[in-house]
Amino acid sequence: MNVHIFEKPGSILKLAGGTALLLALSSGLGLMTVRNTEFMFQLSILALFVMPAFVLSLTRSQYVLPYVVSLWILGPEVRRVADWLTGVYSEVSLVSLIPQIASLALLLAIKPLKEQLYSRVSVYLLIGAYVYASVLGIAFNKAAGAFAVLNTVTPLLVFLYLITVKQTNEWRTMVIKVYIGLAVFCSVYAWIQYMVLPAWDHFWLVGADMTSIGKAEPMGFRAFSTLNSQVPFAIFLCTALVPMIMNRVWRSPYGLVGVLIVVSALALTLVRGAWITLIVAIAASILFSKSKNRLRSLLIIGVIAAAGSQLMPYIPGMDRISSRVTTLGSIQEDYSYNDRMGMFSRALPMIMKNPLGQGFGSIGRSTILGDKGSFAGMQSVDNGYLAILSNFGAVGTLCFLLALILMYKAARKGANPHFKALSSTMYVQILVIFLFVGSLSGFNAVAFWLFAALALMPEPDGIEGKE
């Protein structure tokens, strides 16, 4: 039986005590910032957002996972506001570590592995590959490796939490609805950001100097909303749109209006790979759904396409969106595509020279903390398949892929058709995401592990129930 935290007086006392401790600690740290100490300011913000995760976890609250996932989505914006308030931009700060550290709270709630739908062998293979890549990463890539380990391993805790903690189908529905609600909220903010460009986002755009996003002026950049850049934001919206289209209950109370809002925000990211991913994911979800739900999904897609075609001319910046989409017809002439292919051809021989792997932090954005002259200098290579080979090596890659295959097969055995179809779709979707995303880390990993595990969760009675 699923027990809510407010049903037990003892849990209420624990929650009240933890909250009081949080407020006292945050207030004390806040007073120390009177000396204009930037470190203490960052630490107080970190405590303010992280401690509720530990309180929720200690009280076995059903809201700990939604809270942690929300920090992965909203945390980067908190960091931007904090940097703007202090007037100092930094690549990595304590505030930027809010989602990673909050995810550690899930360790307090994760249960021992038991044989459910999934095979324990698959989990051991996955954990073994991660431990191997973590050790290599810290040994070879130093600071870059340590940061990459934190950014890659903590999202995996979401998966381990889901496959070991018993929850009801209603709880799973609640998690999906919270995720979709955040997608709608972030889509609305993306439009505000795109049209107005708030001061904190402008400050970050100038400090980060990421030319791929665009100019630091209204309607001159690719929307990234509350996330780190346009790519994770696009992945967030893609992974939210799939359940929104699949299930009427999941998209309520936003309905088709919410779907249109999210689709419009996705257009502002100008991430072509996201559109390809979305098309493949929708096709997979229709294939995995029951026959009676397939027609419904096709009708919804038709309604969205018709409404979108009517609204397109009125979307600000439509000329940039149209020009970006038209490049899909002549992709071989596109500079970005050719540049990615060039990076792939240069990076592959380097990776193949290291069959044992170089661990986490050897490829992708985390290498900005490493030695640019070493193997840890391939921060611009955005390809998940290269990242897997680089991180895990030949043997580790086999373990990682075998684990995913076993988990996919287990997800296909789920009794609940809705969660089974959603999880199966995510395993297909990640194959496309890997083509334009550098690694399974950060929020990208959180989104994958969240939906990949929904069909593998144990029920309170130990048997997969029906919705």
Produce the secondary structure layout.
Blueprint: H1 9-32, H2 38-58, H3 64-86, H4 98-103, H5 120-164, H6 169-196, H7 199-208, H8 230-246, H9 248-251, H10 255-269, H11 272-288, H12 291-311, H13 318-326, H14 335-352, H15 384-411, H16 417-433, H17 442-453
Helix pairs in contact: 1-2, 2-3, 3-6, 3-7, 5-15, 5-17, 6-8, 6-10, 8-10, 8-11, 8-16, 8-17, 10-12, 11-16, 15-16, 16-17
Rg, Cα atoms, Å: 22 Å
Secondary-structure-based class equals mainly alpha
Instruction: Give me the oligomer status.
Output: single chain
Strand content: under 5%
- Main β sheet profile: none
Low-pLDDT runs: 1-7, 371-377, 462-467
What number is the mean pLDDT? 83
- How large is the count of helical segments? 17
Tell me the series of helices and strands, N- to C-terminal.
HHHHHHHHHHHHHHHHH
Q: Label the overall shape.
A: globular
Distance between the termini: 16 Å
Let me know the number of strands. Answer: 0
Question: Quick summary of this structure?
Answer:
Helix content is 67%, strand content 0%. It has helices at 9-32, 38-58, 64-86, 98-103, 120-164, 169-196, 199-208, 230-246, 248-251, 255-269, 272-288, 291-311, 318-326, 335-352, 384-411, 417-433, 442-453. It is globular.
Kindly describe this structure.
Helices cover 67% and strands 0% of the residues. The model is unreliable at 1-7, 371-377 and 462-467 (pLDDT under 50). It has two domains: 1-109, no CATH class; 119-456, no CATH class. The chain has helices at 9-32, 38-58, 64-86, 98-103, 120-164, 169-196, 199-208, 230-246, 248-251, 255-269, 272-288, 291-311, 318-326, 335-352, 384-411, 417-433, 442-453. The chain is built from 17 helices and no strands. The chain has 467 residues and is mainly alpha-helical.
